[in-house]
C-alpha cells in the first residue's frame, strides 16, 4: 500500500509541469510583437496562429472586445514534449484577467485533475485536462473544447489563448543565451534520464538545467514555496533578458522557438497591444487567486479527482467577473447580489 501511494505521488509530481509556462507565454508574445516580426517572422506567425472554432467572440460575451477593454488570456502548458505530438492534455491552465484601465491582472490556476463538466459531452464530468481529448473525438477541436470547458466552469469568457509545449521552455531559454540564478542550496535533480548537480551560489543555466532547477521540490525544505521562488527568479530574469534583446541573431532564434512550440489566436495588432499593456502593469498589481480544493477517490470508479467546493468556485468566478467589469453572477449564470465570499482554508488532501 505504501509503495502504491509513493508511486501515485511520484506520478503526480512528474505531471506537474511548471506554472512559469504561463508567464513565459506572455513573454513570447511580447517578443513576437517587436517590429522585427514584420520583416522576418511571418513564417513563425503563420505556424503559431491557430484561431478557435467559434465566432469572433466568446459565448459569454454580448459583443466582441478589444485589448482596450478588460479581457482574458488562457495560458496553457501541455503535457507533451514537442509539437509533433498532437495527442495532448492541458497540464497547466491559468486564466489571466487583464484590466488595462486599472492596470491590473488577476490570475487563477486550475488544477489539471479538477472534476468538471466537459464541454460538448452532454453533461459528462471528468478531469478538466481531458477536455482536449473530447474536443478531438467530438470534432470541436482540442483547444476550442478546452476554452469552452473552462468558460463554463468559471462562467468567465476566454477571449484569447496561448498554448506552449514542454520543449518550448527549454528552447526559449537556450535562445536567450541561458539564465542567471542564485542557487539557494546544493541539490541534485534527475531530468530526462540525466542527473544535474546544482551548487549553492551564482550560476548560469542552459535550458535543460533551468528546467531541472525550477522543477525540483523534493529536496527543498520549503517544498512548493521554495520552488515557486525559484520559478519567479527564472521567469523574471528571462523576461529582463528578452526585453533587452539587441542581437538580431538571438531574436531570430527566439522567434523560431515560438513558431515551433507555441499556438495562439492573437492577431498581429493584438500582440502589439498585449505587449504595451503588459509592460504598463506594475508588478504589485498582479494578483494570484488561490483556489482551495482537495483530492479524493471516493467515487464508484475509485479515480482520483481534485474537487473544488462550490463556494470556492463561486468566489473565483465572482473575482474574475469583477475584474472584467461584468455583472456578478453565479457559475450557472444567475444574478448574484451578495458579497464575494472569503477565501476558503486549504482542505487537506486525501492522498
From TrEMBL:
Residues 89-242 form the Cell envelope-related transcriptional attenuator domain. It comes from the Bacteria. Keywords: Membrane, Transmembrane, Transmembrane helix. The keyword Transport does not apply. The chain crosses the membrane at residues 21-39. Residues 327-351 are annotated as: Disordered. Belongs to the LytR/CpsA/Psr (LCP) family. This is Transcriptional attenuator, LytR family. It comes from Marininema mesophilum.
